[in-house]
C-alpha cells in the first residue's frame, strides 16, 4: 500500500511542471495577438504605394477665408483647386484622398462658391487641424505608446523580481 501511495505522489509530482508550463503559456498568450507573429495574407501580395491625392486642406487654412475675397486670394490661401468646371465657373472643388495598400483610408471634399468673382460661401467635410497640431498630437500618441509599450504579463513579472 505504501508503494502505491509513493507512486501516486511521484505521478502527481510529474504533473506539476506540465501544469505550470500550461498555465504560463496560457497567461503569456493573452499578451499579444496572432497578427504580430503571423503575416497578413494581404502583405504577401504586390506592394502598393501609399497615395496622397488632391488638395490637403486644414482647418487653419479655412479659418483664413473671408467672404468677399477674390479668386486669386482664395487660390493663395487654399491652393489651386483640383476640380474646376467650365459649366460652373463660380464653384471650385478641393478633393483629397489617401489610399494605403489600395484601400481608401480618408476622403474629403471642400467646395468654395463665388458670386461676382468674390468669395460668397464655402462648405465641405470636417477638416483636420493644422499640421503643427497634427504633429503635436502624433508626438503625444507616440510618447504615450512608448510608455505603455511594455505593460504585459512579462513586464509585471520583471517588476515583481526587480528587473528593469
Write down the overall mean pLDDT: 78
Rg measurement, Å: 30 Å
**Helix tally?**
5
Count of extended strands: 5
Q: Could you tell me the strand content as a percent range?
A: 15-25%
Percent helix range:
40-55%
Secondary structure class reads alpha+beta
Identify the quaternary structure here.
single chain
What string, H for helix and E for strand, traces the elements in order? HEHHEEEEHH
- The low-confidence runs, each spanning 5 or more residues with pLDDT under 50, are none
Distance between the termini: 51 Å
Biggest beta sheet summary: 5 strands, antiparallel
Reported by name, the CATH topology of the domain at 46-131 is Beta-lactamase Inhibitory Protein, Chain:B, domain 1
The rough form would be described as elongated
Any idea of the CATH class of the domain at 46-131?
Answer: Alpha Beta
CATH architecture label name of the domain at 46-131: 2-Layer Sandwich
Describe the 3D structure.
This protein has helices at residues 2-29, 59-63, 71-78, 131-147, 153-160, and strands at 51-54, 83-84, 91-100, 103-115, 118-124. It is α+β, with helices and mostly antiparallel strands. The protein has a domain at 46-131: 2-Layer Sandwich (Beta-lactamase Inhibitory Protein, Chain:B, domain 1), CATH 3.30.1450. Strand 3 and strand 4 form a beta hairpin. The chain is elongated. The two termini are 51 Å apart. The mean pLDDT is 78.
Task: Describe the structure in brief.
40% of the residues lie in helices and 22% in strands. By secondary structure, it is an alpha+beta fold. Strands 1, 2, 3, 4 and 5 form a 5-stranded antiparallel β-sheet that branches.
Amino acid at each position: 500500500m505504501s508503494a502505491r501511495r509513493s507512486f501516486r505522489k511521484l505521478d502527481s509530482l510529474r504533473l506539476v511542471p506540465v501544469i505550470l508550463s500550461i498555465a504560463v503559456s496560457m497567461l503569456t498568450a493573452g499578451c499579444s495577438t496572432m497578427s504580430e507573429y503571423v503575416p497578413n495574407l494581404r502583405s504577401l501580395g504586390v506592394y502598393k504605394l501609399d497615395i496622397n491625392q488632391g488638395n490637403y486642406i486644414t482647418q487653419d487654412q479655412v479659418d483664413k477665408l473671408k467672404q468677399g475675397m477674390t479668386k486669386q486670394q482664395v487660390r493663395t490661401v487654399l491652393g489651386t483647386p483640383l476640380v474646376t468646371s467650365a459649366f460652373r465657373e463660380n464653384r471650385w472643388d478641393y478633393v483629397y484622398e489617401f489610399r494605403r495598400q489600395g484601400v481608401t483610408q480618408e476622403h474629403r471634399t471642400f467646395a468654395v462658391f463665388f458670386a461676382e468673382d468674390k468669395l460668397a460661401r464655402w462648405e465641405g467635410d470636417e477638416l483636420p487641424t493644422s499640421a503643427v497640431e497634427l504633429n503635436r498630437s502624433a508626438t503625444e500618441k507616440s510618447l504615450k505608446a512608448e510608455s505603455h509599450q511594455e505593460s504585459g504579463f512579462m513586464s509585471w513579472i520583471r517588476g515583481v523580481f526587480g528587473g528593469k
